[in-house]
Amino acid sequence: MSQVKRIGILTAGGDCPGLNAVIRAVVKSALRRDPPMEVVGIQDGYSGLVENRTQNLSESDVSGILIRGGPRPGTYNRDKPFN
Q1: For the chain, how many structural domains are there in total?
Q2: What is the pLDDT of residue 8?
Q3: What per-residue string of b and e applies to 8-47 under the rule 16 or more CB within 10 Å gives b?
Q4: Mean pLDDT computed over 16-45
Q5: What CA–CA distance (Å, rounded) separates 49 from 46?
Q6: Peptide bond into 73 cis (omega under 30)
Q7: How far is it, in rounded angstroms, from Cα 45 to Cα 72?
Q8: Which CA distances in Å does 27 have to 30, 81, 82?
Q9: Phi, psi dihedrals of residue 71, rounded to the nearest 5°
Q10: SS3 of 78, please?
Q11: Is residue 21 part of a domain?
Q12: Helix (H/G/I), strand (E/B), else coil: 24
């Protein structure tokens, strides 16, 4: 059985209370595993997935996001990715 080596995080909707805390927890947990997993943030919702707009996330990228409004790495819920 192969090990998961990379996680992608995509948020594609409006504000959701607690979502930044979940993103932070996933990033920190994945990076602290042995061996560490790569965490990729997909920017701008589904269009970022289709157009490969990604960013590798580190602990410093999610530091301080608990007090910010709006989920990171950015959302956009107006796309139609299959058109």
Answers
A1: 1
A2: 94
A3: ebbbbeeeeeebbeebbebbeebeeeeeebebebbbbbbb
A4: 90
A5: 5
A6: yes
A7: 10
A8: 5, 26, 28
A9: -70, 155
A10: coil
A11: yes
A12: helix
